[in-house]
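seq/struct pair 1
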Amino acid sequence: MNKRFARFLIFSLLIFSVIPCWAQSQYFTGDGGKGKSITILPPRGANLAKDQAYLPDLVANELVSNFRSFSAMTLFDRVSNQKQYDELLSGVYDDNDKAGLDLGHLASTEYMLVGDITKTSTGYTLHLTVNRNDDKTTAAAYSGTVSIAELDNLVGVRKASLDLLPKMGVRLTAQAQAELTKAPTSDQVNALTTMAQGITAQRQGTEVAALSYYFQAAAFDPALAEAVSRSSILAANISSGNIGMDARNDIQWRKNWIARLEETEKWFNSYFDTYFKTLPPMPYTLFYTSDIEQIGEIDYKNETVTLGGIAIRLRPSREWAQSAELPLQSVQKSVQAVYDGLNATGRKTVWGLDKWPQQGSFNWSPFGKQAKTFTVVVELVNSRNKVIGRQTIQTGGSYEIPVPLPGNGTRIQISADEWKTVNFANVKADDITDSLTVRIASVNGTPSETAVKNGVLQIQAWQDVIEMVQVPGGSFQIGKELGTAGGSDVTPIHTVTLTGFKMGKYPITQAQYWVVMGTNPSRFTASLDCPVENVTWYDAVEFCNKLSVKEGLQPVYTISGRTPAAGYPITNATVTADWGKNGYRLPTEAEWEYAAKGGNPGAAGWVGYTYSGSNNADDVAWYVGNSGGRTHEVGQKRPNRLGLYDMSGNVLEWCWDWNADYPSGAQTNPVGASSGFYRVRRGGSWDYSAGNTRSACRFSDYPNYRYSDIGFRLVRP
């Protein structure tokens, strides 16, 4: 490259890279230095450890932030400046030429801030100098000591800004002086720190690590425009697929991509090792049922019997996963960029890289499942405190960070084993007493009390299976479209008055269904906390009766002529309801719509929303536009004002009523038509449009129909 042309090119690029940051501010009086321009470079580091290499960029980040916020000076665009500065140091120019070049003149700013930061035995020394670029004289200087804590929270850098700005002619207000003596928010500190780590990583050539840090910085502080810009530019570069492209040498192109994948795997393997060590182990809860039943026939010869039917399930903590997700969002986005870039080459299958990243190319496996297994000893104890049965089972859970990104965005995917059934064989009849107790004796060889105390896991008998919400009575207009979506009324609109009732806070989950029915018919089984689906209307009413009996309540339904006589799905039966019973049942259509709309319109705080709890479907519903083609764990979207979740979307919900035209007159506690062909379903689902998850929408189908978008929830008096 012609050297004079190179200088001219860099100068031309840089001269347009000055970004004004001045605006009227409560932080200074007078002009705040308006008309002055400054380039801030990272100070040179001395005696810094390898893992402290980012500190000079952190100091520069905070200085840029302070000068931008507390003055009206124009700051040099560091993104463009860094790019040209890296080119200057890349070896394109020889030493003599480099010595003759003056970055200050290239930057076309009036001032240049440079300096050094040196590690000492107790902290750091920080020396900063602001030079005039035209004559190399000093305009301002600062020297001071900074403790480790003062650098971690950036107070030490703010102290330098508080000294330098007045020396540059900025008359700071009392408010500015006060703010420059206290630390930024933790999110701001984290954002500037991770951006500094990204700048350092990019300078060292590890672009995937840099991208991850930039994503983290933007997540910590979305207002940090530089982090957003850096992440956008770098992600576009990586995901283009052209990294290392050599069209004349496909082998070399593949080698370059393998090097990129190795860099990615190695970096994130190291990152996970460090990051997850800072987190407590994922807490698990071991649930078990305590209902004991006889299994099979009595062995009269040996006077023994098998007792059991006890269900055990390990549940990993969704709360733990949610707390861990924010830092890991950057991991997913960075790996996604590499994944997209590999796809963009159009060569990944030919190169044998089509299973990346789930199947790593090297000895690292940062994107695989992280599993935990528990060996649990379960005992059956009689009223004389004698152990009359003992069984050992293994159960476990796992988590993973899915790449490519699922349709619903960034989530740590956690899972656990299905419910396991525990039976105790050859229990002697003489040992069976009127009262028998199930207890968890040990976990991984440790007594259960010690395991709980040490935080290995929590142990809890499965009680209060269905969490209910009280829905106060009142009157409303059934069929009336509410909110702002512009849907059509379902006519004839008429007034319905309802007595108060209790409704399930969530749709019935797969775990709840399994405990009661002993089976899980669902298609989407990644989590037992997803709603049960693929159930017929007959299956749902039988669940109601079984749960009522299990909890000592009066069954509402009488079911006869069941087809098949045993097993599921139930495809035909005659069902009648006794509305005076206190057990569980399906909601009537009127109850469902009343609850979905938030109850009594006359109640304080009631708002008429289109969807159940919002005029924006994304706030409250999983539908075709955001579900990723599947159901989701219940309770992940916002509830409505009654505290009910997933009334819009996720799965359709069976109601009691036969489908029929609405009557025109007012009604009280209606239960629908006395006969018909179709049973009502409400709420829309994961594969329905947003508009079809509106609270007023009606759907119906044959009671023996089942599909992966149909579930149900319960009510009781």
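seq/struct pair 2
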Amino acid sequence: MFIIQDPVNSILAETNYFFGVRVLFQMVHKCKVAEYTEYKKSCAKKRPADSSAEQVATDSGLTPKRVHRQTTVNERMLAAPVNQDKLDDLVMDYIIQELRPLCTVEKPAFRNLILGLSPSHTVMSRKTLNKRLSEKNAMLLYDIRQQLADQSAVCTTADIWSCMHKSYLGVTAHWISHDLNRRSVALACARLKGSHTYDVVADHLMNVHSQFGLDHTNISFTVTDNGSNFVKAFAEYHETEEVRSEESDDGVGYDDDSVEDTDANLQVVDVDSVLVEECPHAVDIFLPKHMRCASHTMNLLATNDFQKIISADSGSYKRLIRSAMAKCSKLWTNVSRSTKAADTVEAITKLSLRSPGETRWNATYDAIKRLLDPRVCDKIPVVMDALKMPRFQKIEMEVLQEYLLVMAPIAQALDKLQGEHDCYLGLLMPTIQQIKKKLAAVSATVEHSGPLVDGLIKSLEARFTHLFEFSTTSKVYAVSSVCHPNFKLRWVPVDKKEWVKAAFLEEAIKHSTSLPDASATATQDVSDDFFDFDDNAPAEANPDGQSAKVLIQFEFYLDILTH
């Protein structure tokens, strides 16, 4: 049995073994408890005010144990004093990162907080804060221009939205850095007044590009949604390759000597009508190549095309899916508008329902998925009865289950294409190909939703024709996918691999000023159950090339299996 006889040792034992040893001491040595308590009180009286447990242990001839104590705010400030400039920078960073109004520095509570923590300093005024923010903004813009000036290829995006009855134009820029990471910056979030016509959009977009030294020569693509104003702006002001070649030929596009001085070549033009055009600066507007946002196109596929497919159906599926969706919509509306209904649903299911959004189809998919969650689905009849709404029929629940099964590839693809960090152009073509493959696979497993599957496949092929043809239009997408270490040639159909491989090697030779180490891509992670490729397809013969060194390097890159 473990017996403690020395009271001093009992103090150390209490320190090391906490209350367990104290309980053991009280059980075994009941007669010593009072003596121990008195000894503890006497030690507390004799101990100096600034003494510590470390000093007690040292006086007892034992190894002292370091006691950690949390430092106070004042001690930290004394250990690392903050000067006025540092304080001003911290305040400015707080205003920027928390999106606080400039008048925050004039609030009594904020000033008391800063002066209470650092009485020897002052809080900058609103005017000073405004001036320093302007200076910091100028420095940031200069830094962005310097970064963009070093890039040979940049992709920009543009979007227009409204908030609080005001319209805004947002523009961002993206590029691949030398360390193969994607970099992104925001170029503009500017007010857009008046009508959003195609010429106004084109003028504003070109002005933003010009402010940062960007033009159609170093912008690979500008990505926008499928809005008619964006589509027409790029159709009207996109500079073609023929115009570029004319500009490069000694700065002129024709030879003066080839023009005959005859009346037949003269054309009478009304100067007034030319000067009073809709957009006086249209002749000076040149936009880069246009690319429609694949995520927005997929969203249209899941919403507009879905409704067209349902309307065109002449069987029972049209009636079943509309009936099921109507009940879902009524339930979501009731829960979103009535707190009593929301509380009732949460009390029964122990979960809150999700409501669809107005702009993103993913929200509708997630809302139906929550309804069919086993934790909610089993209690849906009770919920509908409590809200005095008609119950879902069994066949309607089956149709909703099939809806989730059919639309799952589209929802997964949208999550990938809307990624913040790992979304590249090389992801697009394999993703679209996989959607079609998965839709075709699910067609044989559904009982009611056959028309929906067939309609979605046709709409997918119609909206992304350029990604299924393997032609000149799809060359940039195919080459980008081959450049992605996770894909290479694994996603390409067997009968198209020769064409894709030749296109990739052609671009590789064209841009082979510096050859990367192909073996460095062998350890890429491809553990993604969305992509299902035939990695056992037979290898093709090597095509002829202009440079043996380039061919060897890139053949080695393509032959590395990324399992």
